[in-house]
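dumping this here so i dont lose it
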């Protein structure tokens, strides 16, 4: 079977496809985040925490109990990094919201 027929049947090299999606996501994310007005940073932080919780679910599935390999290692790293992002985001959001509270005498 030639390469075109193999790719037509879904057996092609998925690395380039996934790399293209990743690079496009990086560019779109960069331009979306830098175009946000300062008034929307707190709500955006809360949404980012929600997205990170979805990332943790996928990372737990990747780091699952089946075997030990590169996917498990990357899944574990994703769980750790997403956890830091979630907890740090909640701390920053709490500090930002406390700036708007009235000072007690």
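and the seq i came up w/
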């Amino acid at each position: 079977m030639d390469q075109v027929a193999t790719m037509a049947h879904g057996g092609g090299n998925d690395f380039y496809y996934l790399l293209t999606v990743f690079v496009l996501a990086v560019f779109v994310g960069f331009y979306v985040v830098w175009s946000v007005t300062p008034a929307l940073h707190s709500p955006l932080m809360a949404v980012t925490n929600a997205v990170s919780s979805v990332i943790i679910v996928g990372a737990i599935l990747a780091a699952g109990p089946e075997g030990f390999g590169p996917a498990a290692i990357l899944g574990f790293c994703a769980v750790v990094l997403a956890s830091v992002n979630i907890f740090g985001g909640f701390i920053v959001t709490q500090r930002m919201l406390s700036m708007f509270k009235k000072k007690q005498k």
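Residues 70-98 form the longest helix (29 residues).
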